[in-house]
Structures are given as C-alpha cells and as structure tokens.
C-alpha cells in the first residue's frame, strides 16, 4: 500500500458521502428535539456537535451505496446508529465517572449524572423509532441483537476490568460490546436495506466486526505506546484506571508468581506506587506482549479486508479496504 | 358497584391468567440470564423477584385473551413490558438516589449506580429482542413510541419537578411518561397481536392511558392524605422531596403573593422548616385541591371504563372495569 491510499480514508469517505451525511445531520437535529424538555437537545447537541468522525453512520451510508441503494432508509439507519452510539457514550461517561470526552467536559460534568442517564435513554428510544420507520424486521433484528451485545459487553467490562482471571476470550467479548457490535450492525444494515444477498450481508458483518476489533485493539495498544501528542491521551491511562486490556492480559497469562503478585496489587487491588507503570511496561517488553498485541490488530485488519472480497468491485470497496489499513497504520 | 367487585380485581385477573403468567415468569428468567456477566441476573432477580403486582404484563395477557388470542406472542409481549418497566425502575432509582423500592434496598444501594444503569440498558435491549420476535411492525411501532414518551417524561419530570411554572398540562405529560404510556402500550399490544379492529385498539389505548393516569393521580394524592400503614409511605414525602404534584400545582395556581413565596421557598429553593408541611396541607385545604385532585382521579377512572364499551362482552372486560374502580377506590 502506498502512503496516499492510507491517508485518512474516512475523510475521503466523508467527501464522497457529503450530501447524504448532511441529510443524516439534519435528521439527527430534528429527532433530538423535544418540544417539552429542552434539556434533551442541550445535552445531545453538546455531544453530537462536538464532532467526532461520524464513522459509524458513514459505514451505513457507504455499504448502502456499495449496493446501489436509491431510497432514503439508509439516512434513517445512519442516524439510528449515531443515536445509539451517542446514548452509549452518555451512559459510559456516567459509569466511568469521566470528566472529558472529545476534548470537552462531559455531559455528566456540565449537567449531572441524571441528565446523562435519562437523555441517553431518550436517544435510545428515538433510535428505536427511527429504525421502526424503515419497516424492515431484518434490520430491527440486527439492531436489537447489537444492542444486547453492547449492553452485555458493558456490564462484562465493569465486572471483568480488574479481574486478573479475564482472558483473551472475555477481552474479545468486551471489545465486541464496546466497539465491534455497532460497527458490524452499521455495515450490515446498510447492505440489508439495499437488498444485498445473504453471503454479502455475512461479509459486511465480518468486515464491520473485524474492523471494530482492530480499531479497539489498536486503541488499547496506543494507550501503552502511543505518542500523547497524537493520541491526546497519556501513556498508561488504562493502567492507572486499572483496566485490563490485551497487552496486560497477555503478560498476566505468562507471569511468574512474583509478577502475578505485582499485577494483583496494581490492577486488582489498585495499589499503585511511583515506578509501577515502568515496571508494568518492562513486563510487557519481557514477554513481547506489545508486539503480540500489534500483530493481533494487524491480523484483524487483514480479516476485515479479506471479508470484502465477495463484495462488488466499487470505489466504496476500495475505501473500506483502505479504512481497515488506516485503523492499524497508526501503530507504525 | 358492590364491595366484592372492587376487591382486588388484579388478584382475580392473576387467578384467571395463572398459567400464562407462569409462562411469562419463566421467559423473564430465561431472558435475564447472561452467560458471561453474572451481575446481570443478580441485579435483575433482586428487583423482578421482589414481587410487585405484575400489573403491566397482566394487562397484555388480559387484552390478548379478551380477543381470543391463541398464539404465544402475548407471552413475549408481557415479558417485554415487564422488562421495560424493570429497566425504568433501575434508572429511576439512580436518578432519584432512592434507597428503598418495594420494601427492599434498591439495586443502586446494594451494588452501585453503574450496575443499575448498565443492567437497565441490558434489560431494555432484551425487551427489544423479545418484541422483534413477534414479527409485528405495528407492535414495534407502539412500543417504540411508548419508550420515547417514557424517556421524555422522565427528563421532563427531572427539570419540571421543582419549577413552579409547571402547570396541569405538563403534569399530565409527566404522568403519561411515568405511568400511563406503558399501561396503554401494554393494553394496546395485547389487542394488536390478537387481531383486534382499529376501533378496538384505539379503545384499548384509551383504557390503558386513562387507567394509568387515574392510578398515578391517586398515588400522588395518597402521598398527602393516605394512611402510612396502608400506603407504606409517610405523608408528605413528595413535599419533602420537592416534587410538584397535582394537589400542589392546583394550590400554586391560586396562590396569593405570600402563598406563592411560601411555595417558592419550600419547593423551588427547598428551604423547609418544621411546620411547613402542615402549612402546605392547610393551603391545599383552603383551595380544596385535595378534593379537586380526587375528582380528577375519579374522572379518569370513569374515562377508562367508558373506553371499554366498544370491547367484546367478556369476563375480562368486567375485570378491567373493576380494575379502574379499584385504583381509585383506595381514595375512599
């Protein structure tokens, strides 16, 4: 791959889908309005208008276009996906007691936890209305299942994060709930509404699933070896917040009794002293878990690209392939 | 009406629907299970198995039977309605910072707010899967709209509760969100799944809506004039928690400047002293707002009964009529 093809393919997607994304944004603004409860659009606007790459709704628009869709249900579905995403961010920030999101104070900080919980519920119910309007039971089934995977993954993350018994299988499930389930639902419903065949819908699911997993593994790896200037996060935030992610899970799996005691103290019990992050990084180095995690991310990106093979040869397909490269190119 | 017909009609409904309610309870237990996140069934069981009258799922079973339904989708819909109800209770207790529910410590107290938020989300997504299984877009539409009314009502309640500008129209909307929207969805979907005509479905909506409103107004009135032995609540809890309900809204509407200043201090600003509840009760007495609220509750119960007229003559219809009498009979 040359540098150009992996330069911000989501921006090239955004260019290609400008008028449809405009329609999605208009629909989002219309549907987040509430005649009676002004708190709702205030909170939603704070988050929705903070930007974000709108990757998920773009995936829905892109896959619908890949199959030559000419109706307008993909606009509704793209807005649906963005509403679900926004609702989960609102609830996540309450659960994680976060103070910042996308470089701005979180809604739970600006208003309160109550507003974040209830406005999240409202957006979820609005997304539900939007998808019902498409009249497609298949789409509803996909989104209902994705919602359950997301919610179960969140609960699992809450209980598994500091539990050293968490293995790679549990991690993968948390990652599916946290990121991949909505990516794969986004790509699937675009194809379904456009009348893609069963094989193609399956491929769209596999692409979205693998893309989401590659994306999240890359994020978790960058937490330990990223440049804080480009990631906007400090190295070791996950360690300090006692979040078990793949680089640590791989190190725990190979730990000597002394090393296990170290992870037990710092992650399970959360008793961290100066120098512990360096020691943790040393253990990851010792077992090569950062490199192994990096390989995993690249493997998932390859899986995503492989899934695209059964899809029609189309400009969009090329962009989706480049997007899979791009989410892991950050690791080079 | 004689005393017998208004004696606990929900218990007579429960008798009549025993085997179907058993099936609903089995389905609830199956669907609240999570292979991976044991926290989910723990939290759900705490609430679901604490009892409660299961009024909402019974309404769905009852209206399906009223139209001679012989399939099993009404079981799924009854479980759906109970899951939505349970999810809203979990989120409500977080928002209200409640410590007790149904005579037991709340989930947010026993576990934490995070668990209540995320398990609530999980139950909502499970309810969504259950309703999709019925394959009825009409049912999905009704439940999506009810969810939006519920969520909007909750946000409205949060922002309107201590605002003296809250009038009876806003109160009614909060009550619809809090109680009536799920009652009316419960009665409607039972009829829809059983193939009731449009007129009959409309009547089922009107019955559920009016029943829910009567029920909530009665609850709000009992807060000021109930016997704490039978209601299990202390007189004036809503006043102390600065919740504007109908008896106070009616008194505020007629207040002299001095009285308005009293409501302003005690409700809007929450500065309450000893004797304030008695003074508040005195003002409600002065303007007869407790009696007026009582009349409103009875009027809604009459509306509920009137809606039943177009429904088939059936044992269930008699029980639904008695139920409307029962929710306000507590006020005698």
TrEMBL record, chains A, B:
Alphabetic keyword roster: Magnesium, Metal-binding, Transferase
Keyword Transferase: yes
Catalysed reactions listed for this entry: 5 isopentenyl diphosphate + (2E,6E)-farnesyl diphosphate = all-trans-octaprenyl diphosphate + 5 diphosphate
Annotated TM spans: none
Pfam families reported in the protein's UniProt record: polyprenyl_synt (PF00348)
Similarity section: Belongs to the FPP/GGPP synthase family.
Job description of the protein: Supplies octaprenyl diphosphate, the precursor for the side chain of the isoprenoid quinones ubiquinone and menaquinone.
Protein name, entry field: Octaprenyl diphosphate synthase
